[in-house]
Amino acid sequence: MTYNTKQSREILACLKSFGHRHVTVTTIRDALAKNGSSVGIATIYRQLEKMEKDGVVRKFILDGKAGACFQYAGEESGRCEEHYHLKCERCGKLIHLQCHLLDSVEDHILADHGFKVNSMKTVLYGICAECAEKEGEEPSC
Questions:
Q1: Measured at the alpha carbon of residue 62, what is the angle toward residues 127 and 43, in degrees to the nearest 5?
Q2: pTM for the full model?
Q3: Exposure pattern of 70-88 as b/e (b: 16+ CB <10 Å)?
C-alpha cells in the first residue's frame, strides 16, 4: 500500500479530512480544488480504486441513480462498523444507523427465514428530519 505520487497523497489526505463521512468523487475534487489542487476526476477514480483494493477506502453504491460514495477506512476515521444506512431521497444525505430494534429484525430474518442480511449494504430510503421540516412534514418514525 504505497501512495507515493503527489496527487495520491493529496487524495488520501482529503479523504482523511472527511473522517467517517461518505463523500463522492465530485466532493473530493471540489475540496482539492478549494485547496489549490487540480486533480482530475479520472485520477481520483483510479486512486480510489487502488485504495479500495488496499482496504484504505470503502466504496458504497447505494442505487442505480446516484454515483458511488467513498469513506476513509483508516484507524483515524472512527471505523464504519456494521450498521444500516438511511438515505434521504430529497437531499441525498447518508446517515449511519445503529438500532437494536433492527438488530432484532435481522436476527428474526436469519432464525425464521434462513436469510442473513448484510447490514453494511442495506439502505433504507426516506426523508430526513431536516428536509421534512423544510417542507412542513413530520418525519416517519
A1: 125
A2: 0.59
A3: bbbbeeebeebeeebbbbb
pLDDT in tens, 28-49: 999 999 989 889 999 999 999 9
Which residue type occupies 16? Answer: K
From residue 14, give the alpha-carbon distance in Å to each of 34, 74, 116: 11, 13, 35
**What would the CATH number be for the domain defined by 81-141?**
3.30.1490.190
Hey, which residues does 59 pair with through a beta bridge? 70
Cell of 124: 433504507
pLDDT value at position 75? 54
Query: Going by CATH, does the domain composed of 1-79 fall within 3.40.50.2300?
Result: no
